[in-house]
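Support reply, case 0932

Customer input (verbatim):
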Amino acid sequence: MANNRVLWISPAKLKENSNILENVDDFYCRNAILKAIDIKITPILGNNLVNYINDLIVAGTLNSPAYSVYKVLVDEYAQQAIIYAAIAELLPEVSYKITTKGLLQFDNENSTAASLNQINFMIQRYEDQSEYWLGRTRLYCMEKERLSELPQYTNPDLTNLLNIPPDRRQPWYASIYLSGMPYGYSKDLNAWGYGYGYGVQWQSFR
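Our regenerated output:
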């Protein structure tokens, strides 16, 4: 059974672990969480594994010791990615409303509405943090796959073209400087490298 509208984190926990105020309607939080699962989590895990976890949540068995691998995946990795992705989804939703007069931005006498540039900056900031945790989530799954502990991840059903297989490509890109030279990760090459331009030396982890 595929339970496609299952929350992996509650609106209350989302607010508790972020700067979202209590007066933000749970309706918006639920929608943002579901979008984060659909758009961010499902492509990483594949919908076979997502549907399996959904079934465990609905059945109330996710907390069983027999499913500890899935419990850790949800609580310690996926939820972190969902929190930041959901905030990024929420920012434009709570900032702007579609009315019969068109798209409007609301504020009140005790606050000042953020500019579009400020909203976009915050969206990007939270999306970057979500990408970090998506990378951690992917690595957790790959390690458990190596230990043969996530069969739904290892053997996705590809007989149906609508099924989404897990994306094992690492999306991180981080730049730091070593001995005056930039050092970073290329998601296109799946490799770490250092140097400038065509002089970059790459170390592949394929």
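We compared this against your earlier run and they match. Two observations from our side: The CA atoms of residues 92 and 120 lie 9 Å apart. The first helix runs from residue 11 to 16. Please reopen the case if you see a mismatch on your end.
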